[in-house]
Write a structure and sequence with these properties.
This protein has 100 residues and is an alpha+beta fold. The chain is 41% helix and 16% strand. It has a single domain, classed as 434 Repressor (Amino-terminal Domain) (Orthogonal Bundle). The protein is built from six helices and three strands, in the order αββαααααβ.
């Protein structure tokens, strides 16, 4: 039995990897979980535009958008940068929730 993993790293700058499916669901102990991003809410609370947050984190605006809509799960490094610039903790930006 393989060990479940919580996320994969997908490099959006590499064309061959863009075509791969994004992992958004995780099966753990016969329960299905989905990782939810709260980046959008945190960013709006600070009235911070996507392009400015992207600039602060060293990524493109498209990457921020992809994270906010759940199409891309950030690396640990990027998640930490997002938390820093959004004045919060990683655990508050990304949560695992049981899927209905």
């Amino acid at each position: 039995m393989s060990t479940p993993y919580l996320f994969t790293v997908v490099d959006l700058t590499t064309p061959n990897l863009i075509r791969k499916a994004y992992l958004t669901h995780v099966k753990m102990s016969s329960m299905l979980y989905v990782m939810k991003s709260r980046v959008h809410d945190a960013r709006l609370k600070l009235e911070l535009p996507q392009n400015r947050l992207a600039e602060l984190c060293g990524v493109s605006r498209q990457t921020i958008h992809a994270i906010e809509v759940g199409k891309y799960q950030p690396t640990v490094t990027l998640a930490l940068k997002l938390a820093k610039h959004l004045n919060t903790e990683v655990e508050k930006l990304f949560v695992l929730e049981k899927e209905d």
